[in-house]
Amino acid sequence: MKIMIAYDGSRNAKLALAQVVEMFRCNHPLVILVGVAENPLDATDHNETLFQQAQQQLRRHLEEGVTFAQKEGFQADLLLAEGDARKMLLAATRKLAPDLLVIARHSHRPDGGIIASSLTYFVDELDYMTFGSVSAFLARRAECPLLILPSP
Length: 152
Hints:
InterPro entries: Rossmann-like_a/b/a_fold, UspA. This is Universal stress protein. Residues 2-150 form the UspA domain. It holds the Pfam family Usp. This protein has helices at residues 11-24, 45-71, 85-96, 114-119, 121-129, 133-141; strands spanning 2-6, 30-37, 75-82, 100-104, 146-149. The chain is globular, with a radius of gyration of 16 Å. The protein has a single domain (2-149), classed as Rossmann fold. Helix 1 links the parallel strand 1 and strand 2. It is built from 6 helices and 5 strands. Helix content is 51%, strand content 20%. Helix 3 runs parallel beside helix 6. Strands 3-2-1-4-5 form a 5-stranded parallel beta sheet, sandwiched between helices. The protein is of the alpha/beta class.
């Protein structure tokens, strides 16, 4: 079994990886973490430097995720792509043909603070009623089963 996880090192992505580990431990799947570095819209030298830094940080997050999965007894690998996250994840599913694609639903919920939580309450309510743009795109186009994990 081959499970592909959209992974960016965020809290929700880490929770999704942990859920996959718990749900599929008995299947001994190959876990492939896919991260997408989105190209900057402005091609200045400053933005290129920021993009390179973001790409390196994403690679570190992917490597940490792979290490976590391996410590849990899984075979794990990573794929780092550049471009539009929706299109790159779709292309990765077509290229690697996973048995399951897992994504964590995006959340605008901050990690703490009552003031920050109250400021984003309305956005959170809308988020719970809809999928994010990446989730919706993949739900319509992915050619493999898709598991969208809710954000806590």
